[in-house]
Automatic annotation (TrEMBL):
It is a multi-pass membrane protein. The lineage of its organism: Bacteria, Pseudomonadati, Bacteroidota, Sphingobacteriia, Sphingobacteriales. It is found in: Membrane. Keywords: Membrane, Transmembrane, Transmembrane helix. Its main location: membrane. This is MFS transporter. The chain crosses the membrane at residues 12-35, 55-74, 106-128, 140-159, 165-184, 215-239, 259-279, 286-306, 312-332, 372-391.
Length: 407
Protein backbone atom coordinates (compact mmCIF):
# COMPACT_ATOMS: atom_id res chain seq x y z
CA UNK A 1 0.00 0.00 0.00
CA UNK A 2 2.82 2.41 0.93
CA UNK A 3 4.65 1.65 -2.31
CA UNK A 4 1.44 2.29 -4.28
CA UNK A 5 0.91 5.60 -2.49
CA UNK A 6 4.49 6.65 -3.24
CA UNK A 7 4.02 5.69 -6.89
CA UNK A 8 0.90 7.85 -7.09
CA UNK A 9 2.80 10.77 -5.56
CA UNK A 10 5.60 10.38 -8.11
CA UNK A 11 3.18 10.38 -11.04
CA UNK A 12 1.33 13.37 -9.54
CA UNK A 13 4.70 15.12 -9.60
CA UNK A 14 5.12 14.21 -13.29
CA UNK A 15 1.63 15.53 -14.09
CA UNK A 16 2.22 18.80 -12.24
CA UNK A 17 5.64 19.27 -13.89
CA UNK A 18 4.04 18.56 -17.28
CA UNK A 19 1.29 21.12 -16.76
CA UNK A 20 3.87 23.60 -15.49
CA UNK A 21 5.89 23.25 -18.67
CA UNK A 22 2.65 23.47 -20.71
CA UNK A 23 1.94 26.89 -19.19
CA UNK A 24 5.63 27.82 -19.54
CA UNK A 25 5.64 27.16 -23.30
CA UNK A 26 2.33 28.99 -23.75
CA UNK A 27 3.74 32.07 -22.04
CA UNK A 28 7.12 31.75 -23.75
CA UNK A 29 5.79 32.07 -27.29
CA UNK A 30 2.60 34.11 -26.81
CA UNK A 31 4.39 37.38 -27.63
CA UNK A 32 5.60 36.03 -30.98
CA UNK A 33 2.03 35.06 -31.84
CA UNK A 34 0.25 38.29 -30.78
CA UNK A 35 3.07 40.74 -31.59
CA UNK A 36 1.49 42.41 -34.60
CA UNK A 37 -2.03 42.63 -33.14
CA UNK A 38 -0.78 43.97 -29.79
CA UNK A 39 1.62 46.50 -31.35
CA UNK A 40 -1.09 47.92 -33.59
CA UNK A 41 -3.38 48.24 -30.58
CA UNK A 42 -0.84 50.27 -28.59
CA UNK A 43 0.00 52.49 -31.57
CA UNK A 44 3.22 51.09 -33.03
CA UNK A 45 3.64 52.10 -36.70
CA UNK A 46 4.00 49.31 -39.28
CA UNK A 47 7.53 50.39 -40.21
CA UNK A 48 8.58 49.98 -36.54
CA UNK A 49 7.03 46.54 -36.07
CA UNK A 50 10.22 44.59 -36.76
CA UNK A 51 12.63 46.75 -34.75
CA UNK A 52 10.31 47.14 -31.75
CA UNK A 53 9.48 43.44 -31.90
CA UNK A 54 13.18 42.55 -31.78
CA UNK A 55 13.58 44.92 -28.79
CA UNK A 56 10.77 43.28 -26.81
CA UNK A 57 11.86 39.75 -27.75
CA UNK A 58 15.48 40.49 -26.82
CA UNK A 59 14.31 41.80 -23.43
CA UNK A 60 12.45 38.52 -22.87
CA UNK A 61 15.58 36.61 -23.96
CA UNK A 62 17.72 38.64 -21.54
CA UNK A 63 15.30 37.71 -18.76
CA UNK A 64 15.61 34.03 -19.69
CA UNK A 65 19.41 34.14 -19.59
CA UNK A 66 19.53 35.94 -16.24
CA UNK A 67 16.68 33.87 -14.79
CA UNK A 68 18.37 30.61 -15.78
CA UNK A 69 21.32 31.43 -13.53
CA UNK A 70 19.18 32.79 -10.67
CA UNK A 71 16.73 29.87 -10.52
CA UNK A 72 19.42 27.25 -11.00
CA UNK A 73 21.36 28.54 -8.01
CA UNK A 74 18.20 28.78 -5.89
CA UNK A 75 17.18 25.22 -6.82
CA UNK A 76 20.52 23.75 -5.76
CA UNK A 77 20.84 25.86 -2.61
CA UNK A 78 17.26 25.92 -1.32
CA UNK A 79 15.30 23.24 -3.20
CA UNK A 80 13.68 22.39 -6.52
CA UNK A 81 10.13 23.01 -5.25
CA UNK A 82 10.89 26.62 -4.31
CA UNK A 83 11.82 27.27 -7.93
CA UNK A 84 8.69 25.56 -9.26
CA UNK A 85 6.52 27.76 -7.03
CA UNK A 86 8.49 30.98 -7.35
CA UNK A 87 9.07 30.91 -11.09
CA UNK A 88 5.46 30.23 -12.04
CA UNK A 89 4.18 32.88 -9.62
CA UNK A 90 6.53 35.46 -11.16
CA UNK A 91 5.72 34.79 -14.80
CA UNK A 92 1.99 34.35 -14.12
CA UNK A 93 1.74 37.78 -12.47
CA UNK A 94 3.88 39.27 -15.25
CA UNK A 95 1.57 37.86 -17.93
CA UNK A 96 -1.53 39.17 -16.18
CA UNK A 97 0.08 42.62 -16.00
CA UNK A 98 1.08 42.27 -19.66
CA UNK A 99 -2.61 42.40 -20.56
CA UNK A 100 -2.77 45.99 -19.31
CA UNK A 101 0.32 47.54 -21.02
CA UNK A 102 -0.16 50.65 -23.14
CA UNK A 103 3.36 51.41 -24.45
CA UNK A 104 6.29 49.43 -25.86
CA UNK A 105 8.76 50.21 -23.03
CA UNK A 106 6.43 48.85 -20.36
CA UNK A 107 5.72 45.91 -22.65
CA UNK A 108 9.46 45.16 -22.92
CA UNK A 109 10.13 45.37 -19.18
CA UNK A 110 7.17 43.12 -18.38
CA UNK A 111 8.45 40.57 -20.89
CA UNK A 112 11.88 40.82 -19.24
CA UNK A 113 10.34 39.97 -15.85
CA UNK A 114 8.26 37.21 -17.43
CA UNK A 115 11.46 35.86 -19.03
CA UNK A 116 13.15 35.64 -15.63
CA UNK A 117 10.18 33.63 -14.34
CA UNK A 118 9.97 31.40 -17.43
CA UNK A 119 13.63 30.43 -17.11
CA UNK A 120 13.13 28.25 -14.03
CA UNK A 121 10.29 25.94 -14.97
CA UNK A 122 11.77 23.27 -17.23
CA UNK A 123 15.15 22.77 -15.55
CA UNK A 124 13.71 22.48 -12.04
CA UNK A 125 10.89 20.20 -13.25
CA UNK A 126 13.22 17.85 -15.15
CA UNK A 127 15.66 17.76 -12.21
CA UNK A 128 12.90 16.97 -9.71
CA UNK A 129 11.41 14.22 -11.90
CA UNK A 130 14.86 12.72 -12.68
CA UNK A 131 15.84 12.60 -9.01
CA UNK A 132 12.50 11.15 -7.86
CA UNK A 133 11.84 8.37 -10.38
CA UNK A 134 13.69 5.05 -10.65
CA UNK A 135 16.73 5.40 -12.93
CA UNK A 136 15.39 2.92 -15.48
CA UNK A 137 12.07 4.78 -15.78
CA UNK A 138 12.98 8.44 -15.38
CA UNK A 139 13.20 8.84 -19.15
CA UNK A 140 9.46 8.17 -19.36
CA UNK A 141 8.78 10.90 -16.81
CA UNK A 142 10.83 13.58 -18.56
CA UNK A 143 9.40 12.48 -21.91
CA UNK A 144 5.85 13.07 -20.64
CA UNK A 145 6.81 16.47 -19.16
CA UNK A 146 8.13 17.73 -22.49
CA UNK A 147 5.49 16.13 -24.72
CA UNK A 148 2.63 17.66 -22.73
CA UNK A 149 4.44 20.95 -22.27
CA UNK A 150 5.08 21.67 -25.92
CA UNK A 151 1.34 21.41 -26.62
CA UNK A 152 1.08 24.78 -24.85
CA UNK A 153 2.28 26.35 -28.10
CA UNK A 154 -0.74 24.97 -29.93
CA UNK A 155 -3.13 26.29 -27.28
CA UNK A 156 -1.43 29.70 -27.53
CA UNK A 157 -2.10 29.77 -31.28
CA UNK A 158 -5.79 28.93 -30.90
CA UNK A 159 -6.38 31.30 -27.94
CA UNK A 160 -4.88 34.11 -30.04
CA UNK A 161 -7.29 33.20 -32.86
CA UNK A 162 -10.35 33.08 -30.59
CA UNK A 163 -9.66 36.10 -28.35
CA UNK A 164 -7.85 39.42 -28.44
CA UNK A 165 -4.22 39.70 -27.38
CA UNK A 166 -4.91 41.06 -23.88
CA UNK A 167 -7.17 38.10 -23.10
CA UNK A 168 -4.48 35.75 -24.40
CA UNK A 169 -2.09 37.10 -21.75
CA UNK A 170 -4.79 36.87 -19.05
CA UNK A 171 -5.37 33.21 -19.98
CA UNK A 172 -1.66 32.43 -19.61
CA UNK A 173 -1.43 34.17 -16.24
CA UNK A 174 -4.67 32.58 -15.03
CA UNK A 175 -3.48 29.06 -15.91
CA UNK A 176 -0.34 29.69 -13.90
CA UNK A 177 -2.23 30.81 -10.82
CA UNK A 178 -4.46 27.72 -11.03
CA UNK A 179 -1.36 25.52 -11.35
CA UNK A 180 -0.01 26.88 -8.06
CA UNK A 181 -2.95 25.23 -6.29
CA UNK A 182 -2.09 21.85 -7.83
CA UNK A 183 1.50 22.12 -6.62
CA UNK A 184 0.46 22.10 -2.98
CA UNK A 185 0.46 18.28 -3.08
CA UNK A 186 3.97 17.89 -4.54
CA UNK A 187 7.11 17.02 -2.59
CA UNK A 188 10.81 17.83 -2.60
CA UNK A 189 13.48 15.62 -4.17
CA UNK A 190 14.83 13.03 -1.75
CA UNK A 191 18.35 13.42 -3.17
CA UNK A 192 18.22 17.16 -2.47
CA UNK A 193 17.04 16.58 1.11
CA UNK A 194 19.90 14.12 1.71
CA UNK A 195 22.56 16.69 0.76
CA UNK A 196 20.72 19.73 2.16
CA UNK A 197 22.80 19.93 5.35
CA UNK A 198 26.18 18.88 3.95
CA UNK A 199 29.11 21.29 3.85
CA UNK A 200 29.74 20.75 0.12
CA UNK A 201 29.15 23.91 -1.95
CA UNK A 202 25.69 23.91 -3.55
CA UNK A 203 24.54 25.96 -6.53
CA UNK A 204 28.00 27.52 -6.93
CA UNK A 205 28.12 28.31 -10.64
CA UNK A 206 31.85 29.08 -10.39
CA UNK A 207 32.39 25.34 -9.84
CA UNK A 208 31.50 24.78 -13.50
CA UNK A 209 34.62 26.71 -14.47
CA UNK A 210 36.94 25.47 -11.70
CA UNK A 211 38.01 22.26 -13.44
CA UNK A 212 38.73 21.85 -17.16
CA UNK A 213 36.97 18.47 -17.35
CA UNK A 214 33.83 19.80 -15.66
CA UNK A 215 33.79 22.94 -17.80
CA UNK A 216 34.12 20.92 -21.02
CA UNK A 217 31.38 18.55 -19.82
CA UNK A 218 29.10 21.57 -19.40
CA UNK A 219 30.02 23.02 -22.82
CA UNK A 220 29.35 19.66 -24.50
CA UNK A 221 25.93 19.55 -22.81
CA UNK A 222 25.14 22.99 -24.27
CA UNK A 223 26.40 22.09 -27.73
CA UNK A 224 24.11 19.09 -28.21
CA UNK A 225 21.11 21.47 -28.12
CA UNK A 226 22.42 24.02 -30.65
CA UNK A 227 20.40 22.94 -33.74
CA UNK A 228 17.02 23.03 -31.96
CA UNK A 229 16.35 26.77 -31.86
CA UNK A 230 17.95 27.46 -35.25
CA UNK A 231 15.40 25.17 -36.89
CA UNK A 232 12.51 26.82 -35.06
CA UNK A 233 13.82 30.40 -34.96
CA UNK A 234 15.16 30.62 -38.52
CA UNK A 235 14.17 27.77 -40.84
CA UNK A 236 10.49 27.89 -39.84
CA UNK A 237 10.10 31.48 -38.62
CA UNK A 238 11.65 32.81 -41.84
CA UNK A 239 9.46 30.58 -44.00
CA UNK A 240 8.08 33.54 -46.04
CA UNK A 241 11.61 34.56 -47.09
CA UNK A 242 12.84 30.99 -47.62
CA UNK A 243 9.65 30.17 -49.56
CA UNK A 244 10.28 33.13 -51.85
CA UNK A 245 13.84 31.90 -52.51
CA UNK A 246 12.39 28.45 -53.30
CA UNK A 247 9.79 29.97 -55.69
CA UNK A 248 7.00 28.56 -53.53
CA UNK A 249 3.57 28.12 -55.10
CA UNK A 250 2.03 30.42 -52.46
CA UNK A 251 3.57 32.58 -49.68
CA UNK A 252 4.51 30.28 -46.80
CA UNK A 253 2.95 31.06 -43.41
CA UNK A 254 5.38 31.23 -40.49
CA UNK A 255 2.47 31.03 -38.03
CA UNK A 256 1.16 27.76 -39.45
CA UNK A 257 4.70 26.47 -39.79
CA UNK A 258 5.45 27.14 -36.11
CA UNK A 259 2.26 25.37 -35.05
CA UNK A 260 3.09 22.26 -37.12
CA UNK A 261 6.70 22.36 -35.91
CA UNK A 262 5.61 22.40 -32.28
CA UNK A 263 3.22 19.53 -32.94
CA UNK A 264 6.23 17.64 -34.33
CA UNK A 265 8.33 18.63 -31.32
CA UNK A 266 5.68 17.28 -28.96
CA UNK A 267 5.63 13.92 -30.73
CA UNK A 268 9.41 14.10 -31.13
CA UNK A 269 9.85 14.28 -27.38
CA UNK A 270 7.86 11.04 -27.10
CA UNK A 271 9.85 9.51 -29.98
CA UNK A 272 13.24 10.47 -28.52
CA UNK A 273 12.21 9.24 -25.08
CA UNK A 274 10.98 5.89 -26.37
CA UNK A 275 14.07 5.39 -28.57
CA UNK A 276 16.28 6.11 -25.53
CA UNK A 277 14.34 3.57 -23.42
CA UNK A 278 14.43 1.00 -26.21
CA UNK A 279 18.17 1.39 -26.94
CA UNK A 280 19.03 2.03 -23.25
CA UNK A 281 20.95 5.04 -24.51
CA UNK A 282 20.11 8.75 -24.57
CA UNK A 283 23.17 9.44 -26.74
CA UNK A 284 21.96 7.12 -29.51
CA UNK A 285 18.49 8.70 -29.38
CA UNK A 286 19.94 12.20 -29.81
CA UNK A 287 22.16 10.98 -32.67
CA UNK A 288 19.09 9.63 -34.48
CA UNK A 289 17.44 13.05 -34.02
CA UNK A 290 20.50 14.84 -35.45
CA UNK A 291 20.33 12.68 -38.58
CA UNK A 292 16.62 13.52 -38.92
CA UNK A 293 17.35 17.26 -38.59
CA UNK A 294 19.92 17.10 -41.38
CA UNK A 295 17.72 14.98 -43.65
CA UNK A 296 14.49 16.97 -43.34
CA UNK A 297 16.12 20.43 -43.24
CA UNK A 298 18.11 19.83 -46.43
CA UNK A 299 15.01 18.35 -48.07
CA UNK A 300 13.07 21.50 -47.16
CA UNK A 301 15.81 23.89 -48.30
CA UNK A 302 16.18 22.13 -51.65
CA UNK A 303 12.44 21.87 -52.44
CA UNK A 304 12.15 24.27 -55.38
CA UNK A 305 8.51 25.21 -56.06
CA UNK A 306 7.45 23.93 -52.64
CA UNK A 307 3.70 23.80 -51.94
CA UNK A 308 2.13 24.91 -48.67
CA UNK A 309 1.14 21.33 -47.85
CA UNK A 310 4.68 20.05 -48.39
CA UNK A 311 6.07 22.89 -46.26
CA UNK A 312 3.74 22.07 -43.36
CA UNK A 313 4.66 18.40 -43.52
CA UNK A 314 8.36 19.23 -43.57
CA UNK A 315 7.88 21.68 -40.69
CA UNK A 316 6.26 18.83 -38.75
CA UNK A 317 9.10 16.43 -39.64
CA UNK A 318 11.78 18.99 -38.71
CA UNK A 319 9.93 19.43 -35.42
CA UNK A 320 10.05 15.67 -34.93
CA UNK A 321 13.83 15.86 -35.39
CA UNK A 322 14.39 18.69 -32.91
CA UNK A 323 11.99 17.11 -30.43
CA UNK A 324 14.82 15.78 -28.27
CA UNK A 325 14.53 18.90 -26.03
CA UNK A 326 13.60 16.94 -22.89
CA UNK A 327 16.26 14.33 -23.62
CA UNK A 328 18.83 17.11 -24.00
CA UNK A 329 17.89 18.65 -20.63
CA UNK A 330 17.81 15.19 -19.01
CA UNK A 331 21.30 14.41 -20.31
CA UNK A 332 22.54 17.73 -18.90
CA UNK A 333 20.95 16.97 -15.52
CA UNK A 334 22.40 13.45 -15.41
CA UNK A 335 25.96 14.60 -16.16
CA UNK A 336 26.35 16.49 -12.86
CA UNK A 337 26.11 15.86 -9.12
CA UNK A 338 23.14 16.80 -6.93
CA UNK A 339 24.77 20.03 -5.72
CA UNK A 340 25.09 21.39 -9.29
CA UNK A 341 22.40 19.43 -11.13
CA UNK A 342 19.62 22.03 -11.09
CA UNK A 343 22.05 24.84 -11.92
CA UNK A 344 23.09 22.97 -15.06
CA UNK A 345 19.60 21.77 -16.00
CA UNK A 346 18.20 25.30 -15.64
CA UNK A 347 21.00 27.28 -17.29
CA UNK A 348 21.59 24.84 -20.18
CA UNK A 349 18.24 25.26 -22.00
CA UNK A 350 18.31 29.04 -21.54
CA UNK A 351 21.90 29.39 -22.74
CA UNK A 352 21.00 27.25 -25.76
CA UNK A 353 18.11 29.63 -26.49
CA UNK A 354 20.56 32.52 -26.18
CA UNK A 355 22.98 30.77 -28.57
CA UNK A 356 20.47 31.51 -31.32
CA UNK A 357 21.88 35.07 -31.35
CA UNK A 358 25.41 34.17 -32.60
CA UNK A 359 23.88 31.51 -34.87
CA UNK A 360 21.67 34.09 -36.55
CA UNK A 361 24.56 36.56 -36.82
CA UNK A 362 26.61 33.94 -38.67
CA UNK A 363 23.59 33.06 -40.77
CA UNK A 364 23.01 36.73 -41.66
CA UNK A 365 26.60 37.13 -42.80
CA UNK A 366 26.41 33.95 -44.90
CA UNK A 367 23.15 35.13 -46.48
CA UNK A 368 24.93 38.27 -47.72
CA UNK A 369 27.72 36.11 -49.17
CA UNK A 370 25.96 33.04 -50.58
CA UNK A 371 22.20 33.63 -50.48
CA UNK A 372 19.53 32.51 -48.03
CA UNK A 373 19.26 28.83 -49.05
CA UNK A 374 22.98 28.01 -49.06
CA UNK A 375 23.43 29.96 -45.81
CA UNK A 376 20.63 28.02 -44.10
CA UNK A 377 22.04 24.67 -45.24
CA UNK A 378 25.57 25.62 -44.12
CA UNK A 379 24.55 26.71 -40.62
CA UNK A 380 22.25 23.69 -40.13
CA UNK A 381 25.07 21.30 -41.10
CA UNK A 382 27.55 23.18 -38.89
CA UNK A 383 25.32 23.17 -35.79
CA UNK A 384 24.39 19.49 -36.18
CA UNK A 385 28.07 18.65 -36.74
CA UNK A 386 29.01 20.43 -33.50
CA UNK A 387 26.16 18.67 -31.68
CA UNK A 388 27.25 15.21 -32.89
CA UNK A 389 30.88 15.90 -31.92
CA UNK A 390 29.83 17.10 -28.45
CA UNK A 391 27.58 14.06 -28.04
CA UNK A 392 30.54 11.77 -28.74
CA UNK A 393 32.46 13.42 -25.87
CA UNK A 394 29.79 12.84 -23.20
CA UNK A 395 29.45 9.65 -21.19
CA UNK A 396 26.25 7.64 -21.48
CA UNK A 397 23.95 8.53 -18.59
CA UNK A 398 20.88 6.33 -19.18
CA UNK A 399 21.20 4.12 -16.08
CA UNK A 400 23.46 6.43 -14.11
CA UNK A 401 23.06 6.63 -10.35
CA UNK A 402 22.39 10.30 -9.52
CA UNK A 403 23.14 10.04 -5.80
CA UNK A 404 26.51 11.84 -5.78
CA UNK A 405 27.93 15.34 -5.52
CA UNK A 406 30.54 17.39 -7.37
CA UNK A 407 33.62 18.08 -5.23
Amino acid sequence: MEQSANSRKVWLLVVVASLGYFVDIYDLIIFSIVRVQSFRDIGIADEQMRSEGEFVLNMQMAGLLIGGVIWGIIADKYGRLKVLFGSILLYSLANIYNGFVQDVNTYAWVRFIAGIGLAGELGAGITLVSETMAKGKRGYGTMIVAAVGVLGAILAYYVSEWFDWRTAYFVGGGMGVCLLLLRVGTFESGLFRQQEHTTVAKGNIAMLFAKKERFLRYVYCLCIGLPIWFVVGVLVTQAPEIGKALSAEVPLSAGKGVMFTYLGISLGDVFAGLVAQWLKSRKKAVFVCQVMILLFSIWYLSSTGISETKFLWLAFLMGLGVGYWATFVTIAAEQFGTNLRATVATTAPNFVRGALIPSTLLYGWLVSQFGILHAAIAVTVLLSGIAIFALSKLKESFNKDLDYMEE
